[in-house]
Specification:
- InterPro entries: Cro/C1-type_HTH (IPR001387), Lambda_DNA-bd_dom_sf (IPR010982), Toxin_antidote_HigA (IPR013430).
- This protein is mostly helical.
- The protein has a single domain, classed as Orthogonal Bundle (434 Repressor (Amino-terminal Domain)), CATH 1.10.260.40.
- 62% of the residues lie in helices and 0% in strands.
- The mean pLDDT is 90.
């Protein structure tokens, strides 16, 4: 059976939502109500997505 290695949530968010639409990371952070450093940690794969953050993304 082949194993599937899904991308990190931050990588997915960057590739599917931020890069294609040319949205600035700063603007996304402000829309989510989080600091730029918090969002960068997630996007760079250095932090996992919390349930609270998942709910915030749902509203975008």
């Amino acid at each position: 059976m082949r194993m599937h290695n899904p991308p990190h949530p931050g990588e997915f968010i960057r590739e599917v939502y931020i890069t294609p639409y040319g949205i600035s990371v700063r603007k996304v952070a402000a829309s989510l109500g989080v600091s730029l450093s918090t969002l960068n940690l997630l996007l760079n794969g250095e932090s996992n997505i919390s349930p609270e953050m998942a709910l915030r993304y749902r509203r975008l």
